[in-house]
C-alpha cells in the first residue's frame, strides 16, 4: 500500500485531483468513483480548477456513486445523487447522463443493488475510486464486521450515524433514512485504483489499523491491503499514529515526479 503524508487537506486534495487529471489524460472516458462528505471537497475543487484552466478535458469522463440513501424521493436535496450533482457533476461541467448511481427509491432494493453492480461492470469497471474512512475503519457504509467479499447491498444505519447525519436534515433525526445502498467491499476492490483520503486526528487510529494492522472484517478499510494499487493520502494529524510514517515520507519524497500516485 502506498501512503502519502501531506501537510494539510488542501495539499491532499491537489495531489488526488492531479491523479484524476493524469488518468483522464490517458483515458478520457475514465469512470471516476466519487464519495460524499467534507473530506473529498478539496479534491473536487482542485479538479474543477484544472478543468477551468484547460489543464484537463472531462467531456467524455464519467462518475459513479459509492452509496445512496434508501427511500428518499427523486431529487431530494440530501440524496447522495443530488449532493454529488452539486459538488462534482455541475462544477466539472459534466452531463447528468455521465453519472451512474444506484436507485435508492426502487421498489425492489435488492434487485437495484444487483443492477448497480451490473451497471458498473457494463461500464468497464471503475478506474479510480475515491474513498473516505470512518473513525471505526468503515468505507462506504461497510461497517465493522462486513464481509470482505460483499457486493453492493442494503445496509441499516447505526443510530449514531443517523444522529451524525441529522445536521443535513435540519437537525431532525426522524428525517434521516434508516437504510442505505452501499457498494460492498468486494465491489470496491474491483476498481483499478483505490485512493483513500483522510484528514484530522480523529482518523489517526483508523488509518493506522488500515495500513499497519491485520486484514480483518473489524476494520473494513484494511481490505485495501489486498488491492494491487491502493493509495492512502493523509495529513500529518491523520498520520500521527503510523509507526512507519518516517519510511512513508522518505519513500514518497524519492518517488519520480512523473510517476504520480
TrEMBL record:
The active site is at 67 (proton acceptor), 136 (for ring-opening step), 138 (proton acceptor), 143 (for ring-opening step). InterPro entries: Glc/Gal-6P_isomerase, Glucosamine6P_isomerase, Glucosamine6P_isomerase_CS, NagB/RpiA_transferase-like. The record marks 146, 153, 155-156 as: Part of the allosteric site. Pathway: Amino-sugar metabolism; N-acetylneuraminate degradation; D-fructose 6-phosphate from N-acetylneuraminate: step 5/5. Gene3D superfamilies: 3.40.50.1360. It catalyses: alpha-D-glucosamine 6-phosphate + H2O = beta-D-fructose 6-phosphate + NH4(+). Keywords: Allosteric enzyme, Carbohydrate metabolism, Hydrolase. Allosterically activated by N-acetylglucosamine 6-phosphate (GlcNAc6P). SUPFAM superfamilies: NagB/RpiA/CoA transferase-like. Transmembrane segments: none annotated. It is an enzyme of class 3 (hydrolase). Its EC number is 3.5.99.6. Catalyzes the reversible isomerization-deamination of glucosamine 6-phosphate (GlcN6P) to form fructose 6-phosphate (Fru6P) and ammonium ion. Belongs to the glucosamine/galactosamine-6-phosphate isomerase family. NagB subfamily. This is Glucosamine-6-phosphate deaminase.
